[in-house]
């Protein structure tokens, strides 16, 4: 599925979407939204990594399998996790409000979240671009016409359907 993806350039699929919110000052205006062709799982990620180095796919799979648990352990200890060239994983919370500082308690905390910030080093010209986009010299924008989703097409384990 992902063979020779670097040979195809940096492809950005998008579709056109009209603002349907009649209360918005931008009602009726058109926007572009990106469209992902699917989700690559750790097997595809391991194959891509193996094609760039001498480490075997099975060894890469072992590391990737443990990565999420390792990140969770470090986040649980109160730290953020920086993966060089990729970005930083960190926790955030969603809370209700309180009228005073003393009235705010743990009960106001509604949800724990994990967020990711892509690494964005500054270039010599002062621009910031996510490191993961470093090979995106000239993206190819391709208009995509969304198709109706089939329930059987949804693969919850993150592995793409064959032929996609």
Brief description of this entry?
With 164 residues, the chain is α+β, with helices and mostly antiparallel strands. Helix content is 18%, strand content 24%. The C terminus is likely disordered.
Largest sheet: 3 strands, mixed
> Which range does the strand content fall in?
15-25%
Number of strands: 6
Q: Radius of gyration over alpha carbons?
A: 21 Å
Oligomer: single chain
Strand line-up of the largest beta sheet:
2-1-6
In round numbers, the mean pLDDT is: 79
Q: Tell me the series of helices and strands, N- to C-terminal.
A: EEHHEEEE
- State the end-to-end distance: 7 Å
Helix content range = 10-25%
The shape, in one word, is flat
Which stretches are poorly predicted, pLDDT < 50 over at least 5 residues?
A: 156-164
Helix vs. strand class: alpha+beta
How would you characterize this protein structure?
18% of the residues lie in helices and 24% in strands. A three-stranded mixed sheet has the order 2-1-6, with no helix packed on it. It has a three-stranded antiparallel sheet with strand order 3-4-5. A hairpin with a 3-residue loop joins β3 and β4. The radius of gyration is 21 Å and the shape is flat.
Set down the secondary structure blueprint.
Elements: E1 11-18, E2 30-34, H1 42-50, H2 57-76, E3 81-83, E4 87-95, E5 109-118, E6 140-143
Parallel strand pairs: 1-6
Antiparallel strand pairs: 1-2, 3-4, 4-5
Helix pairs in contact: 1-2
């Amino acid at each position: 599925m992902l063979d020779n993806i670097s040979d195809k350039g940096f492809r950005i699929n998008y579709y056109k979407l009209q603002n349907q919110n009649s209360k918005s000052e931008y009602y009726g205006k058109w926007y572009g939204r990106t469209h992902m062709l699917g989700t690559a799982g750790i097997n595809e990620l391991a194959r891509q990594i193996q094609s760039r180095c001498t480490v075997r796919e099975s060894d890469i799979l072992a590391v990737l399998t443990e990565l999420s648990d390792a990140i969770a352990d470090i986040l649980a200890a109160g730290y953020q996790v920086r993966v060089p060239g990729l970005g930083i994983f960190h926790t955030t919370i969603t809370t209700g409000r309180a009228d005073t500082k003393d009235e705010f308690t743990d009960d106001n905390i509604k949800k724990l979240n994990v967020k990711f910030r892509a690494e964005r080093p500054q270039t010599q010209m002062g621009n910031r671009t996510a490191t993961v986009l470093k090979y995106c010299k000239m993206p190819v924008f391709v208009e995509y016409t969304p198709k109706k989703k089939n329930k059987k097409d949804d693969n919850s384990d993150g592995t793409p359907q064959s032929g996609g």
